[in-house]
Design a protein that fits this description.
heterodimer, A: 523 residues, Methanol Dehydrogenase, Chain A, 5-stranded mixed sheet, 4-stranded antiparallel sheet, 2 helices, disordered N terminus, B: 252 residues, alpha+beta, Cytochrome Bc1 Complex, Chain D, domain 2, SH3 type barrels, 3 domains, globular
């Protein structure tokens, strides 16, 4: 009897995760309730047990090894002592945050010929009420019982045989689950969906590529919009005050052959702002009209309220894959500022409306055209971080170029529709940096140089720390100065984002390294 | 800088049916294949396919791709654990490239004029090659192993490398010089490097590992430990050496 009482005291009673709790995530910093930690895309934690003073003593508390050899990109969700992770291809596991022991597992059987461009991966789950949500690479959205992992509903979002897949972590907003689609290399027609959280019924769909007769169809030559792609494969942000969902869209299809799709190609490479109740477009901003370099605008938008040139404004910050940093007014979509934040050779600059002024000779050719940034971009899907303590925006930045090839673009449903390719620039010494920017000017505050371009995101905390990773090592930097304070060699490529939480009141930092999830603490 | 970096982004899809014979090998296909080859392949394999960083393709029979199907697969998927990457070209383009690659093997290769027996003697004695290079069970481990080199590199490439080895130094044989903050000097071939540390193999073959925050100066030399044999050996001797190396076709 005594042990039962101890058990009850140790594991907090499971309380439902309401929309109200998600809105006020900052009031329960011990949990990590959404992909980016809050709706504003900050990936910041007010936790400060681990600080610049003691982070040198950070060491593994436990490690969870995934059985999959695919890339392990998940950001864990933590609610009241339970951690929910996704694993490749589309599995979900609930772990005890104190011990790392498994509480339940959801294992999905996949068809033999899953069609994905870039690995059968998943970036994380969402939680709402007593359900955990995961998108699958065979393009379903599945709701699992948060206590048992039992399937409560399983909705077909799209057909994987035509190259549709889901890799994005869903976002739970109000009574809906927002889920994006991947398949930008398969000539799909992109969309963003909202499903009823309780039943799995489609609430609305916003097509990111027009249908015949839509005004946007004029931005595509002929009927090229039919295979226009503009996938939505990275989790966006939400602002309860504007009631708008902010989401990035991917490359137009085919990636590198723009000849078959003359025009701006709306809404590819855009930030779209949708009414979360109806899915109606409030505004859009296109970063790279008529993209021919595969520069998806599928980065995480960061929402802050700040003085901009003397005026208090609601801003949206966006370090884009195309190497320009953008500041938009998130109420109106107005372009406020844009400037390069990494090496780029494709545009002279941006005009007053934020439209790039392209340089000649930068389109892909059969023989190959070297252009900066690389196909991987100056930034990519992995997360930036905004700290209200330092006021800096942190971005893991890639400094590299690619040789871009133009190729034929014959469409065959379910096969890749690339229209070219790329390779690295011969002899180039690529590098990278974790950079801190003044968000309203885009000016660099500091940088920590990395030997190789990173492919993992950053987390900032109130302990004056920025966590990130490079070349198999997880690192911690001083958030004010960029000084290296801690590193850990995990022995595997890191393609994920760090997060932090508490268990029994003690702070932990978690990140996947190779095929394992590492959870660190100061003993 | 690493050749595999693009694979972080793109995974090549498995394929369903590949015909045994190249269905696209008309003169027009070969002409288009040449354009594709020049952009994507020539950087490593050379414009005439006689190798360089990549393998010699100007041979009558490609060791890994005697059949069309195998050649198609290699161009599409690359060769795992080598620097040969896959390609995102479409089906038609892949076959066109393969068709052009086949023509490289039909080119007249530069005749090997030297005497291989004389070349072997130079290789093992006056040339001093075995001090650094391995040939089967013999030789050293400072430079690249030369076992089977005749199957991988053309005679023209081998000759150029012997005359002027600094003209292209492979990434994994880059020479670096380090001066530590404590005043110690190190020099060797870089075997690995990241943001925080660097590992070398020094002239004695010993591994050296240094944290970057202990380094005062790190210089990457744009040269190699291999001496240039231009002027050290006569033209005839160099041709003999090339003849010997070109004859090294497989494991000994």
């Amino acid at each position: 009897m005594k042990s039962a009482i101890v058990l009850l005291a140790a594991i907090p009673l499971f309380a439902q995760v309401t929309h109200q709790r998600l809105l006020n995530a900052a009031k329960e910093p011990g949990n990590w309730l959404t992909y980016s930690g809050n709706f504003a895309g900050h990936r910041y934690s007010p936790l400060k047990q681990i600080t610049d003073q003691n982070v040198a003593k950070l060491q593994p508390a436990w490690v969870y090894q995934s059985n999959s050899l695919q890339k392990f990109e998940t950001t864990p969700i933590v609610v009241d002592g339970v951690m929910y992770i996704s694993e490749a291809p589309s599995h979900v596991t609930a772990l005890d945050t104190r011990t790392g022991r498994t509480l339940w597992r959801y294992r999905r059987t996949m068809p033999d010929d899953v069609r994905v461009c870039c690995g059968q991966i998943n970036r994380g789950v969402a939680i709402l009420g007593d359900l955990v949500y995961v998108g699958t690479v065979d393009a379903h959205l599945v709701a699992l019982d948060a206590k048992t992992g039992a399937v409560r509903w399983d909705t077909v979002v799209a057909d994987n045989k035509t190259g549709h897949s889901i890799t994005v972590a869903p976002l739970a907003v109000k009574d809906k689950i927002i889920i994006g689609i991947a398949g930008g290399e398969y000539g799909i027609r992109g969309f963003l969906d909202a499903y009823d959280a309780k039943t799995g019924k489609l609430a609305w769909r916003f097509w990111t590529v027009p249908a015949a007769g839509d005004p946007e169809a004029k931005t595509w030559a002929g009927e090229s919009y039919i295979r226009g792609s503009a996938a939505t494969w990275v989790t966006g942000a939400y602002d309860p005050e504007t009631n708008l969902l902010y989401w990035g869209t991917g490359n137009p299809g085919p990636d590198w052959n723009g000849e078959v799709r003359a025009g701006d190609n709306l809404y590819s490479d855009c930030l779209i702002a949708l009414d979360v109740d109806t899915g109606k477009l409030k505004w859009h901003f296109q970063f790279t009209p008529h993209d021919v370099h595969d520069w998806d605008a599928t980065e995480v938008p960061v929402l802050i309220d700040a003085d901009f040139r003397g005026q208090k404004r609601k801003l949206l910050l966006f370090p884009n894959r195309n190497a320009f940093y953008y500041v938009l007014d998130r109420v109106s979509g107005q372009f406020l500022l844009g400037k390069p934040y990494a090496k780029q050779t494709w545009a002279k600059g941006l005009d007053d409306s934020g439209r790039p002024i392209r340089l000649p000779g930068t389109f892909p050719t059969v023989e190959g055209t070297p252009v900066w940034p690389s196909v991987g971009g100056a930034n990519n899907w992995y997360s930036p971080s905004y700290s209200p303590d330092t006021g800096f925006l942190y971005v893991a930045t890639r400094e590299s170029g690619s040789v871009y090839f133009f190729g034929s673009a014959e469409f065959k449903a379910g096969e890749q529709f690339n229209g070219g390719g790329f390779r690295s620039v011969p002899g180039e010494e690529e590098w990278g940096a974790i950079r801190a920017f003044h968000p309203t000017s885009g000016d660099l505050a500091w940088e920590y140089k990395l030997f190789a371009p990173p492919y993992s995101g950053v987390l900032s905390t109130a302990g004056n720390l920025v966590f990130g990773a490079t070349e198999g090592q997880m690192i911690a930097l001083n958030a004010k100065t960029g000084k290296l304070l801690w590193r850990f060699q995990g022995g595997g490529a890191i393609r994920s984002n760090p997060m932090t939480y508490t268990s029994d009141g003690k702070q932990y930092v978690a990140m996947t390294i190779g095929n394992s999830l590492y959870v660190f603490h100061v003993q | 800088m690493f050749w595999w970096a693009p694979f972080l982004l793109f995974q090549l899809q498995p394929l369903v049916d590949i015909p045994d014979k190249n269905p696209y090998s008309s003169a027009n296909d070969i002409a288009q294949g040449k354009r594709l080859y020049m952009g994507r392949c020539a950087g490593c394999h050379g414009p005439t396919g006689d190798g360089g960083k990549g393998a010699n393709l100007a041979v009558p029979k490609l060791p890994r791709a005697s059949e069309d199907r195998a050649l198609y697969r290699i161009i599409r998927f690359g060769i795992p654990d080598t620097e040969m990457p896959g390609s995102l070209m479409d089906n038609h383009e892949l076959w066109q490239t393969a068709a052009f690659v086949r023509t490289l093997g039909r080119l007249e290769s530069a005749p090997v004029t030297g005497n291989a027996q004389a070349g072997e003697k130079i290789f093992k004695t006056t040339g001093g090659c075995l001090n650094c290079h391995a040939l089967g069970s013999q030789g050293g481990n400072i430079g690249p192993t030369l076992t089977g080199i005749g199957a991988r590199r053309s005679s023209a490439h081998l000759k150029a490398k012997i005359l002027d080895p600094a003209s292209s130094v492979p990434d994994q044989f880059r020479l670096v010089q380090i001066t530590t903050k404590a005043g110690k000097s190190l020099r060797g071939i870089r075997v690995n490097e990241d943001t925080f540390s660097i590992q070398l193999r020094d002239a004695n073959g010993n591994f050296q590992s240094v944290w970057k925050d202990e380094i005062a100066k790190l210089v990457s030399e744009k040269k190699t430990n291999m001496p240039a044999y231009k002027g050290r050996l006569s033209d005839e001797q160099i041709n003999d050496l090339v003849a010997f190396l070109s004859g090294q076709k497989g494991d000994q």
